[in-house]
Design brief:
mainly alpha; globular; Four Helix Bundle (Hemerythrin (Met), subunit A); about 150 residues
Length: about 150
Amino acid sequence: MWNRLVDRFSAPTAEAHCDGPCGVYDPASARIAAEAVRSMTKKIGDLTPPAAGDAAALVAYSNTISRFVSIKEEQAELAKREILVLWTDFFKPEHLEANPDLHDLFWNAAKLCSAAKQNVDPKACDDLISAIEKIHNTFWSAKGRDVEFFLAG
């Protein structure tokens, strides 16, 4: 049945990061997610474990750290997804010609997202934000615009 419907009502194929032809791309969403990863990483590092035997404090600590880790994981994955969308959907062969290190830039940024998920490492977070700044500059240059990179946090 489905095949008959598709054959009868075919439509042209459209491609975009949101599965619609919006054409809207911006590395700001990756930056915001990476800043959240860095914030959660700092908060995890700043937590003080409770004294032994304080069950209520252990429950509160466990709740807080699990929430921080969950947010860190989600935001690192979001940053990776946003980076990969830019890499695979926005950038074209002509951009690669103008930026021969483009694949390495994005590959390394995606790897930094993984490192930020796997560890509680402020340096990995800072390196990720630096990589996203390079992506930001490359992206806006490709669009012929000079857009300042800034951190919200």
